[in-house]
Amino acid sequence: MTKKDSVIRFLKNIIDFLVKPFYWAYKKKLWTQIKNQRMPEHIGIILDGNRRYAQERDLPPWYGHKVGAQKIEQVLAFCYELGIRVVTLYAFSTENFNRPEKEVEEIMKIAKQKFHELMTHPLIHKYRVKVKAIGRLYELPEDLQQIIREAEKNTAQYNDYQLNVAISYGGRNEIVDCVKQIAQKVKSGELLIENINEKAIESHLYTSGLPDPDVVIRTSGEERLSGFLLWQSAYSELIFLEIYWPSIRKIDLWRAVRLFQKRSRRYGK
After folding, report:
1. Do 132 and 164 form a contact (C-beta atoms < 8 A)?
2. What is the pLDDT of residues 199-228, one digit of tens each?
3. The dihedral of CA 56, 59, 65, 70: what is its sign?
């Protein structure tokens, strides 16, 4: 460690020591504001900023993806502690396949490791979490598809909570796949055209049977959905956080929940 690094670490420790009491006081106040209010039932999260997190540290992009993957476990624990029953994570879009080959390869390795961990993770079994991957899974490497199927099978008996991982996912692709299924049923005579309505469409989406997200959170400061749950998020509260995904903290989630609780959802009325 250089002398400069030592000085920087020393100053950081001093700042942390001075700020810590204010942080805990704010956290306590925030908890009192949200704990007795209505909690969202379903939260969608766009995990954005992993690459920029790594770039700011002069590290390869997959370092950011690894740290971001480790953060998932922590944030899920925060959600389940609040009683949020459904969490949908936007982990990898169909467009992300256009990234450099090495980066995509590393992301697939991380995904394989994390789905494998889900099969035996104490958090999943403590809260009885059903795990489901949503997207065009056939575009993923075969070994990753196999791990996903095993994770889904091993948690299929759980119904208390649900974790959806949107991987090889695109909101427009989801709607296209939905339309194809409906068209096939019309063609076979299983479904009449006059019976196509919102419920019929929802029953053919990847999230069939689940409530729409109350809140969609995106980290990194970008203010767009990037194709995430386009149909389902029609009335979701959209909350954009300025921090990168690997840096998200419990108070950031709590602040997002507080924003949701303060907003009035009128559904056009």
Report:
1. yes
2. 999 999 999 999 999 999 999 999 999 999
3. negative
Contact yes or no for 85/129 (Cβ under 8 A): no
* Contact criterion met (CB below 8 Å) for 93 and 173: no
Active site residue 48: yes
For the chain, what are the domain ranges?
A: 39-170+213-259
Question: What size, in residues, is the chain?
Answer: 269
Select from 3.40.50.300, 3.40.1190.10, 3.40.1180.10, 3.30.870.10 the CATH code of 39-170+213-259: 3.40.1180.10
Task: Give the active site residue among 5, 96, 195, 212.
Answer: 96
Q: What's the one-letter identity of residue 79?
A: C
Q: Provide the Cα torsion 150, 130, 167, 256; round to 10°.
A: -150
**SS3 per residue for 16-52:** HHHHHHHHHHHHHHHHHHHCCCCCCCEEEEECCCHHH
- Which tokens go with 44? 């969608």
Here the tokens at position 85 are: 């029953």
Q: Which of 48, 212, 214, 252 is catalytic?
A: 48
Q: pLDDT digit string (tens) for 134-152?
A: 999 999 999 999 999 999 9
Q: Measure the CA–CA gap between 251 and 245, rounded to whole angstroms.
A: 13
